[in-house]
Input
Amino acid sequence: MSTPHDHPGATLAASAPAVPAWPVDHAADALDASAPLVALNRVSKRFGERRTSPVTRLLERARLAHPPAVVHAIDEVDFAVRRGEVVGLVGESGCGKSTLGRLLAGLLAPSSGEVRLDGRLADSLSAAERRAARLKTQMIFQDPYASLNPRLRIDRIVGEGARVHGLTDRAGFDDYVSAQLERAGLDPALRERYPHQFSGGQRQRIGIARALAVQPDLLVCDEAVAALDVSIQAQILNLFMDLREQLNLTYVFISHDLGVVEHLSDRVVIMYLGRVVESAPADEIFRHPNHPYTRALLAEIPRIDARHKTFAALRGELPSPLAPPSGCHFHPRCPHALPRCKTEAPALRGIAVRHLSACHLNDAA
Output
């Protein structure tokens, strides 16, 4: 009897000073502890959609007017993040990782589908409840230079959100900001400087301090170390892990660097052109990749033991999200594509314990 991995090619060969953690939010006791912090159910995000008048629609049908170009960034994705885990989100540039991260953080609203926060439907929450729930999810951006307001001093950048939301008052503002900077590995004496007076690594630490200042449960890190030197990357990654232990944080770590994802993540989710194609614990993904796209990504990782091996890049280009392929989005580049792959989108389903994959080859095995 064949297994899910039997189809062709299925197997491929400085910490910050500790500061006291913030108080427990007893309001969370009423929530379902087993529910994910954030869950997306068949969520899609399309850019460029707009309502058109009946006259415009008639002109479009008569080919006298062009329909608006619509970018299909996210296509009916199911995604959940549970308390305390680190989820690595991986894929090529343009696959929708950053858009998905912004949906998780509440910076974008979905075009369709459901978003649940601590088990409750986001649309059913009051404005105050939605604001409090969104405060618990913060985002750390890729570019440490563009993510900070150059006209504000560091104390305002880090502490303004906490002050607005009542987490500190004017009298305790300086001490609160100093504690956040110290937690992120920065000297509190630097809090009166401006962003241009810091290096890239220091700016990323400022971004981390700003995110932590509002006492979140979930950090969405969008390529948070991609713009940094390798030595600085290691320091920031170690800081993330130290903060996870100190504050019981949950992470979604968006990256194209599989080495970083393998080092950090408990679970890895692979995306391709707006869809999740595989999800499994990190060890399972790297030892037993199932989807052809996942195997192609892993084959491109440089390895010392394979330095004499001829490198073969994944053929073809990522299709445009303006006109994604029918059926399985990966079929134009897949070396194992079946006829049904061109017309039928594979469902993301279980192939092993906690291992999901969206590939018709699993049915053919």
Confidence is low (pLDDT under 50) at residues 1-32. The radius of gyration is 22 Å. The longest strand covers residues 71-81.
